[in-house]
Amino acid sequence: MSQGILSPPAGLLSDDDVVVSPMFESTAADLGSVVRKNLLSDCSVISASLEDKQQVPSEDSMEKVKVYLRVRPLLPSELERQEDQVCVHIENMETLVLQAPKDSFALKSNEWGIGQATHRFTFSQIFGPEVGQASFFNLTVKEMVKDVLKGQNWLIYTYGVTNSGKTHTIQGTIKDGGILPQSLALIFNSLQGQLHPTPDLKPLLSNEVIWLDSKQI
């Protein structure tokens, strides 16, 4: 079963506006007591030919996952301890170099000819500590929001160790919102004139809506 989103009328979303909502798609099949010998011919997305099935899609036809890295600034408590970020070096917009800290086991092992002291990683784009919430949103999520309003599906998630800044990037603060409040604000701004004027509808469970009376409102 696929869930979609209706596209807004033309002209609702300007180049300066944006919107993002993760969309999910799932498929379920109930075989019951029916046993079929040839299932391939019934699937429109799978070729009945085993030779066609074994063909590997070309790189151009495959959509790549975009992976963004955001390096957070040091916290006040870390600055008080005179910590630094010399171990993290942004080589360019796509390449990050990690250097083992001084007196670390990794660095000593490397001196003994064991392991590596330097590691290089590549991302779709890297954002340094100086990049604010608005700039990060505009450079990463803005175009995805536009795609969602056109009916396309996107999934966005954060990954990182504890205290690495995931919650700040997603939620932010009241004065400096993250990608979630910015996305919601732009979604509603793009739907001006189409919103229900009275708050008398309430979602019920997953797929129903109830009409509230004046006391419930």
How does this model look, in words?
The structure is a single chain. It is built from 7 helices and 7 strands; from the N terminus they run H-E-H-E-E-H-E-E-H-H-H-H-E-E. The chain is an alpha+beta fold. The strands form 3 sheets. A 3-stranded antiparallel sheet has the order 2-3-4, with no helix packed on it. Strands 1-5 form a two-stranded parallel ribbon. A two-stranded antiparallel ribbon has the order 6-7. Strand 6 (201-204) and strand 7 form a beta hairpin. It is elongated and about 75 Å long. The two termini are 33 Å apart. Residues 1-15, 18-41 and 43-51 have low confidence and may be disordered.
Key attributes of the depicted protein:
disordered N terminus, alpha+beta, 23% helix, two-stranded parallel ribbon, 7 helices, 217 residues, single chain, three-stranded antiparallel sheet
Structure summary:
This protein has about 220 residues and is α+β, with helices and mostly antiparallel strands.
